[in-house]
């Protein structure tokens, strides 16, 4: 009898346990709005390409972060959404009549929902990215076992895929590699598994540092992976290979910093760049690197180049 009562209570509590708040964003404000949602109690925030279901159109000349971006904050059903909407309305990040949708979701473990959709994927000739909770398709391949946790980087985004394919195409044996904006650590760990002797992962998000550390352990490469917040990066680190999958804006701002971390004749790959932003970044990095033509996947570009030998 008692257990029946408990079951009833549990069932009652389980009705509509999640609320989803969905907004549209621009390249300028997306990350800051995501942070605002987290500060206001969101259990998770995801950015998705919303090309098929735009909530509002970009202003002329405005770029979207991931094409046309939806930002989705996930809340427990008991959360009072009114103060959160009020906060957003008062925020300079959004106009006061911003578009949004609030939906009640069915009862599922939404935070881990993507896990079912994440399958082993092959990049280039040798490299597989495998969810750490699923069996590997080929024991003899180079397998990176990954759980991205709350950080970006599963290999499903075209920019990550472009960087993984580039890393697979290089001879990384005994090389020093920097992964600028390491997220889940996917590129850093792939570089180690492809033969690099030392990799330095840098990210301004502490959750990315945690996810990268956990994934390095999963892959038995913790000893070779050093992880730093940008402010803590020691001086005197120079890379044979640097990969940075951030966004065009930070890549432009960080260009002198990134350039100074690459050895003469070292290799560079940049992604997180929309196709139409590629020429501008080729010009910026062309000051120090011999840049190749952009490689495009969907609407995203990867740029690569070799650092000129200082005269
Ligand atoms: C698009 S994700 C890439 C993650 C992973 N490297 C991949 O390729 O999938 C970009 C990462 O760069 C980090 N990031 C953005 N701006 C940064 C900056 N100025 N310095 C360091 N990390 C930055 C973000 O926190 C995020 O983890």
UniProtKB/TrEMBL annotation:
Enzyme kind, highest EC tier: transferase
Reactions listed under catalytic activity: L-lysyl-[protein] + 3 S-adenosyl-L-methionine = N(6),N(6),N(6)-trimethyl-L-lysyl-[protein] + 3 S-adenosyl-L-homocysteine + 3 H(+)
Gene Ontology BP annotations: methylation
Keywords (A to Z) from UniProt: Cytoplasm, Methyltransferase, Ribonucleoprotein, Ribosomal protein, S-adenosyl-L-methionine, Transferase
Gene Ontology CC entries for this record: cytosol; ribosome
Gene Ontology molecular functions: protein-lysine N-methyltransferase activity
Residues binding S-adenosyl-L-methionine, per UniProt: 160, 181, 203, 245
Gene3D superfamilies assigned: Vaccinia Virus protein VP39
Tagged with keyword Phosphoprotein: no
SUPFAM superfamilies in UniProt: S-adenosyl-L-methionine-dependent methyltransferases
Domain of life: Bacteria
Entry keyword annotation includes S-adenosyl-L-methionine: yes
Subcellular location: Cytoplasm
Entry EC number(s): 2.1.1.-
Major localization class: cytoplasm
Entry function: Methylates ribosomal protein L11.
PANTHER family, per database record: ELECTRON TRANSFER FLAVOPROTEIN BETA SUBUNIT LYSINE METHYLTRANSFERASE
Family statement: Belongs to the methyltransferase superfamily. PrmA family.
Protein name: Ribosomal protein L11 methyltransferase
Native organism: Psychromonas ingrahamii (strain DSM 17664 / CCUG 51855 / 37)
